[in-house]
Structure formats: structure tokens, C-alpha cells
Write a structure and sequence with these properties.
This protein is an alpha+beta fold and 380 residues long. 38% of the residues lie in helices and 12% in strands. It is built from 14 helices and 10 strands. The strands form 2 sheets. Strands 3, 4, 5, 6, 7, 8, 9 and 10 form an 8-stranded mixed β-sheet that branches. Strands 1-2 form a two-stranded parallel ribbon. Helix 1 crosses helix 11, helix 8 crosses helix 11 and helix 9 packs across helix 10. The N terminus is likely disordered.
């Protein structure tokens, strides 16, 4: 990688630059740190359980959406031992609406593993954390740095943006990730003992706080559009700012979108009850509750989708609701036609399905796409 140009600002030699950036970040963070439900107050120690729980929830999801779910989980399961004793079904129900449901399954599996294999205490090294279900390189680094003070750097989207602008990283994501990771690690500073795994008390080893400072910087100042560069503690060293093209970073390759998939959803009522089923444990929306649907396939026509309706002898005909329900998953957009039917109270549910009270649907592990379908099907 070619070295980025030095900004027309205060210059530092390598040694002073390595030390000054962490100091600037920490000084700024101590004054401007965000108040978050999972973040301890200044001077308090971080709770590994809260750090882990928040990091899993924050994957692909913003702070505003996560905060109420985090508090709800904490009230129900105050520690990892309690969560490890819960059923997966209960966890999925509590998670419903937050999306990316594999996170909930991994969350439960990890809690079970910590309770069973580690005596209810999270291991304090990246290597051992990565051996747990659902904990990848980023989450392991975040827990190790924030909860245990390990000298490592977790790189999320906010940190990617700050670092790519600070050093003007020309490579596009995702290929640029290793370069950004390496550059971000330099912002931790140099350990006086030369031990990257040290947890000494001096400010240069506050790796967790430096990581959170960068996250806060990306969230509040180094924003995707119209960054407030004048307020940034690193503005004198920022190559992107010096060049005037900071908003063009990070470079991104054209996004690929999967082909549109189509299908049908069947909203069947029996008095004040709704026909539902549980999806297979593995795969998309695994273990979640849904109304019966057809397969979701590209180029599927309505007739083929309707042919996959649940077999209920009491249904004379299906009523197609006007309009469609659309939903975008990570790898493809989905379009569902909704059919409705009402059947007598004596009707039995087909094999693998069950009746649930419409009044208690909030207790079901319904993903957002099914909430849309049910609202559309039961609406006027």
C-alpha cells in the first residue's frame, strides 16, 4: 500500500504520532463519551456479559433499535448463567422484531456454552472467546478490549470510516478490511512494556476506551455525510480532510443485490385464532414463527405459489388481498402475495401447524416479514 500524503497540518514523527493520537482520542472520549445502557460509567469496570450481549445485538443493527431490546433481555436474564438456563424458544420470542435471527440462536448457544464449559464466566482472551458459538474476530476483540482491557482493536463500521478517512485508504471494501484493521491497531498506542497483550494501568493501554472513542467519533462526528471535521480531535492528522475528499471514504465496491424472490403467504383464521407454524431450526429465520407460505423462489408465478397453500378441507376458496408485502433480506428482496381464509371453529390444524390466539401474537417469535404479512392479512 502506498503511503498516504502527509496533511498540511501539524506534523509528527512516528513515535510522537503513535502516542499523540491515543492521547487525543482519550481526552476527547473522557469529555464526550456516549451514555449507553451497556457502557459503565467512568471509573466503573465493564461487565463482560453486558459487553457481549450488546455486541451481538449491535451486529447489523443501530444503537437506537438495540437499546430497548438490551434492557428487556437484561431484566429477564440479568447474567449469562440465567440466559444459559433459558429455552431457545423464549430467547427467540424476546428477540422477535430485532431481525437477523441467527444472532439469537448463537446468543443462546453461547450462553449455554459459557455456563456449561466456563463456569458462567466469559474467558478473557480473544482466542478462547472465538471458540464460543457466534463470536467471530470482531466480537472477540471487542469483548477482550472493552471488558478485559486486552490490547486489541475491534473494527466496526464506524471505526472503518474514521480510519479510512484518517489514512485515506484507497482500496475498496471489503478488500480494504485487513489494511484498515492494521492501521486501526496503530491507534491503540505503544505499550511501554512492548507486550501487546498487556493490561497495564497507563492511558496507552486503555484499548477498550480507545475503541469506544473511535466508535463514538464515527457515530457523532465522522458521520457518513457532512462530517463535523472541525470538532474532530484527529483533524490535524486526517489525510482525507487535508485532501478535501473525506466523504468519499471508505471506498466501496458496487453492491450486489440478489434476484427478487416471490411467493405467497396464507393468513387463516379460526374465530379469534390464527394458523401458524415454526420454521426449521436451521436456515433463514430458523426457529421463528410464521404463517404458512409457499416456497420463496425467483420468477415464481402466483398460480404456482397458490398451489402450495396448506390443505384445509374447510376452505372453499382463498381470498387474495390487494397489494403485496415486500421485505428485503441481506441477500435478496422478497415479494409476497397474501391470501386469507376463515374456517369453522371445529377445524383442526394440519400436521406441523397450530392455532394461536391473535391477542397473544406478541408472545410469538414473529420476524418482521411475518408481522407485515399478518398486519396486511388481518387488515381491512
Amino acid at each position: 500500500m502506498n503511503s498516504p500524503p502527509t496533511p498540511k497540518a501539524k506534523r509528527h514523527n512516528l513515535a510522537s504520532e503513535t502516542y499523540s493520537r491515543p492521547t487525543l482520542l482519550l481526552d476527547w472520549y473522557d469529555l464526550h463519551r456516549r451514555r449507553l445502557p451497556w457502557r459503565p460509567l467512568p471509573g466503573e469496570s465493564a461487565d463482560p456479559y453486558r459487553v457481549w450481549l450488546s455486541e451481538i445485538m449491535l451486529q447489523q443493527t443501530g444503537v437506537k433499535a438495540v437499546a430497548p431490546y438490551f434492557l428487556k433481555f437484561l431484566a429477564r436474564w440479568p447474567d449469562v448463567d440465567a440466559l444459559g438456563r433459558a429455552s431457545l424458544e423464549d430467547v427467540l420470542r424476546m428477540w422477535a422484531g430485532l431481525g437477523y435471527y441467527s444472532r439469537a440462536r448463537n446468543l443462546h448457544a453461547c450462553a449455554v456454552a459459557v455456563r456449561r464449559d466456563h463456569g458462567g464466566a466469559f474467558p478473557d482472551s480473544e482466542q478462547r472467546l472465538r471458540a464460543l458459538p457466534g463470536i467471530g474476530p470482531y466480537t472477540a476483540a471487542a469483548i477482550a478490549a472493552i471488558a478485559f482491557g486486552r490490547r486489541t482493536m475491534p473494527v466496526d463500521g464506524n471505526i472503518e470510516r474514521v480510519v479510512s478517512r484518517l489514512f485515506a485508504v484507497e482500496q475498496s471494501l471489503p478488500q480494504a478490511k485487513p489494511v484498515i484493521q492494521q492501521l486501526a491497531t496503530t491507534l491503540i498506542g505503544v505499550s511501554r512494556a512492548g507486550d501487546d497483550n498487556s493490561r497495564a494501568g497507563d492511558e496507552k493501554s486503555r484499548a477498550g476506551d480507545i475503541a469506544q472513542a473511535l466508535m463514538d467519533l464515527g457515530s457523532s462526528i465522522c458521520t457518513p455525510k457532512k462530517p463535523a471535521c472541525a470538532l474532530c480531535p484527529l483533524n490535524e492528522d486526517c489525510v482525507g480532510r487535508a485532501r478535501g475528499d473525506q466523504e468519499s471514504f471508505p471506498r466501496k465496491a458496487p453492491k450486489k443485490t440478489g434476484a427478487l424472490r416471490r411467493g405467497a403467504a396464507f393468513v387463516v383464521t379460526r374465530g379469534d385464532e390464527l394458523l401458524v407454524r415454526t420454521r426449521a431450526e436451521k436456515g433463514l429465520l430458523g426457529g421463528m414463527t410464521e404463517v404458512p407460505t409457499s416456497h420463496w423462489l425467483a420468477a415464481q408465478d402466483d398460480k404456482a405459489a397458490l398451489g402450495q397453500a396448506p390443505r384445509l378441507k374447510d376452505i372453499a376458496r382463498w381470498h387474495r388481498k390487494q397489494g403485496t408485502v415486500t421485505h428485503v433480506f441481506t441477500h435478496f428482496p422478497l415479494e409476497l402475495v397474501v391470501y386469507t381464509a376463515s374456517i369453522p371453529t371445529r377445524a383442526c390444524a394440519p400436521t406441523g401447524m397450530r392455532w394461536v390466539s391473535i391477542a397473544t401474537l406478541t408472545d410469538e417469535a414473529l420476524p418482521n416479514v411475518m408481522r407485515k404479512v399478518i398486519a396486511h392479512g388481518l387488515g381491512d
